[in-house]
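CORE FACILITY INTAKE
Project code: CF-77B
Contact: R.S. (postdoc)
Sample description: multi-component assembly, two entities in total
Requested service: structural model of the whole complex
Turnaround: standard
Below are the sequence entries exactly as provided by the requester. Do not edit them.
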Amino acid sequence: AQSVTQPDIHITVSEGASLELRCNYSYGATPYLFWYVQSPGQGLQLLLKYFSGDTLVQGIKGFEAEFKRSQSSFNLRKPSVHWSDAAEYFCAVGPANEKLTFGTGTRLTIIP
Amino acid sequence: DTGVSQDPRHKITKRGQNVTFRCDPISEHNRLYWYRQTLGQGPEFLTYFQNEAQLEKSRLLSDRFSAERPKGSFSTLEIQRTEQGDSAMYLCASSSWTSDKFGTQYFGPGTRLTVL
């Protein structure tokens, strides 16, 4: 069975500081991995995805993520956060074009 | 792309009533998914379609829930005899097999259901 763990329920960082959100997954084959962001009351917006190839993937809004097979991790990073990055972040795993399994999310708060 | 749209955005109903939600996927996408998200949780898979065929249903989808995609375009999700536990955000997503968007699910804004 596939599963995703996001160990950090809530993270607070100062504007301009760096950010890393953790994601660990369990999946029987080569995973398709995703990071989505959700603002309050809204749907999910895709930040980035990993299917194969280069293990460091670039996404929108200056985000990147690194796939580490040995650690079953797909952590999201940003070198300098902006106040507009405050939101809920979800990691997801699944086969292509089939159901996704999501983590419980990490809520990001930005302080001035 | 015009994006995935959902209607209504909000629905308040009384316990025991039936409700129906609509999802319009991105036009060239042949797969359509429904998820449910409760407060403080990530989305949970309910069901998905390829064209008009329903390929998989979660055990979360009790017999009070039914989903259809009659012409392989828009989809409806109906909940009969609503219960307070059905209160949640219902999210729709779609995906395609074309190379540049392969396997990526694009989500709509969701329908927020409140059962009183």
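Facility notes:
- The interface with chain B takes residues 4, 32, 34, 36, 41-46, 49, 51, 90, 92, 95-105 of chain A (CB under 8 Å).
- Chain A has no helices and twelve strands.
Invoice: internal transfer
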